[in-house]
Design a protein that fits this description.
alpha/beta, globular
């Protein structure tokens, strides 16, 4: 699940780079046979409210959403929507089917929540997640993101094209790593099992 801040402060080059990043991520993963077979992607965006821009979709069928930057930062609503979508999408184990692996979450924001964040966080914590990574861009509130992702908070000091491109390349590599681990049967559960972040990304 990619959870992306599309509030007004992301307008201009940052939102354009987010769009480019999603397209780059999808085209790179489509060249990875293992990811092509096992990875599904969903995009949830949030501005003054949260939106399921792309439901969980296999890579061959995925179409990048048209996103624009506007409004405030409904991060709490985004967490609620994310949890509701995962609850609906992720298959639980039954006598006849294996459970899906716990989903990975990559969340990116450049601001502080403008809605009821704690309510969304409570709902989010009720679901079971694999690796959850939160990325703080510019002046985003790191302490808020630590409540979501624990120690797996990374920071981009700028929202320029190089930094955002580096972030999406790292997310791509992380999803590829998770796809390969399907073969070994070892689920990716934390930052230490992902590729090391590039120089543009600072671990908080």
């Amino acid at each position: 699940y990619l959870v992306l801040d599309c509030s007004g402060s992301m307008s201009g080059e940052p939102i354009q780079q987010v769009k480019n990043g999603v397209q780059m991520l999808v085209s790179a993963l489509r060249q990875d046979p293992q990811a092509l077979e096992t990875a599904f992607l969903s995009v949830i965006t949030f501005d003054s409210s949260a939106h399921e821009a792309v439901p969980l979709t296999d890579l061959p069928s995925f179409q990048a959403p048209n996103i624009a930057a506007t409004g405030t930062t409904a991060l709490g609503e985004a967490l609620t929507l994310l949890a509701d979508c995962a609850s609906r999408d992720v298959k639980k184990a039954t006598p006849t089917q294996k459970a899906d692996w716990r989903p990975m979450v990559f969340l990116m924001t450049d601001g502080s929540p403008t809605d009821d964040f704690q309510k969304g966080l409570t709902r989010f914590k009720k679901e079971k997640w694999g690796a959850v990574v939160a990325c703080a861009v510019d002046s985003a509130d790191v302490s808020i993101l630590q409540q979501i992702a624990g120690e797996a908070v990374v920071k981009l000091d700028t929202s320029d094209s190089a930094a955002l491109s580096a972030f999406f390349k790292w997310v791509t590599a992380s999803i590829s790593t998770s796809s390969k681990s399907v073969q070994t049967g070892k689920e990716v559960e934390g930052l230490n099992q992902l590729p090391p972040p590039p120089a543009e990304i600072v671990l908080v």
